[in-house]
Structure prediction request, 123 residues.
Amino acid sequence: MATFRLRTKRIYDEPAKGDGLRVLADRLWPRGVAKADAQVDLWAKELTPSHDLRKWLHEDPERYDQFVAKYTAELNDHSDQVRQFLSEYGDRTVTLLTAVKDLSHSHIAILQAYLERAADDSA
Prediction:
């Protein structure tokens, strides 16, 4: 059985063979990206921050530490979707795609860490 490998990448970067399953993890489709060119295998809106939470953070980016806790709580509330995602794709390479510029200070870093912990817990 293959090992779960989770990567993050901007959707504006060129697709690569090593990306594996390309999963868009943004609630909104990225500007300037044609769906035909994006090579997205799955759009996982259910794993992204809610509209209200996303808007709340954008109003004041200094709230990031609070955002981490609130988004983690949302992911906990969607544990069924997380388990489903891991059961379907947890044995392969998955690249989480996003339009954000700062991957390490965004929802994508939180999602990656959450999925990795959940995968370890289910192993």
